[in-house]
Amino acid sequence: MSVIFSCRQAARLASESLDRPLGLHERLLLRLHTMMCGACTAYRHQIATIDLAFAQRANQGKPYLPTSEALDTAARERIRDLLRVRVRQLSDKPH
Amino acid sequence: MTDHAAAGLSEDEITDAWVDGHADALFSYALTRLRRRQDAEDAVQEALLAAIESRQAFRGESAERTWLIGILRHKIVDHIRRSSRTSEVEPARDDMDGWCGKSDRWLHPPKHWQGDPQVLSENADFWIQVRMCFSQLTERQAQAFSLRTFDQVPSEEVCKLLGISATNLWVILHRARGRLRQCLESTWFAQEQNP
Questions:
Q1: Which residues does A71 contact at the CB level (< 8 Å), separation at least 6?
Q2: What is the model's pTM?
């Protein structure tokens, strides 16, 4: 298999194509490489799949990963108390 | 506060609505990016306090959750920038060294993945696996990748937020994607294809 440039470079360009528009020359190199290299074709598809899955989870109103544990009760109550104190301070202040 | 005030809620009820309605989601958001429990709790606390200060500015044009997450995002970015002097430096060695070998061929060539991103995005088990893989990223990789994909922030904006060059950002994202796909291939997709 004669490749014009390396898998290392192809993988790098495949990733950058998700973050910036590639130049004409870069697009051509990546296209030629992936035409001949099944592994890099798969790689390109894999990283695009991951990015899309993240974006679609965000579209479902969940721009975060699930947590194994929620905010614990002590922290929740500490935050609640701090907020209540702050609200009182703010409403006592003359406007 | 306008919609709550209109609904006749007291200040304490507004506070409760935020804490009980949004704190868990805000915590998940912060934990995804900061990863240390204590840091995530601090960020949620800071964000909610800031929201209380500026609640007059909330006009109900966006969903309350979205507005709170916007404030939290700024707190997290501040945290990352403050800690960047002490946090881990990107390793000089490229992760690709482990995969391509001297010949520049893949040692373990990536395989074709079955599965539509939309369907995957709705699979709770998939995200539990992603969380495990995501924990292998550096804090900076996790933050940059979250800003790009979850928050859909343009690259130039991510560079400004994190105070890094475009080239640096591309390297960080390339490594984040490489690590994620390698981990997911050997876990989730290995099971999918060889049940």
A1: B23, B24, B27, B41, B44
A2: 0.84
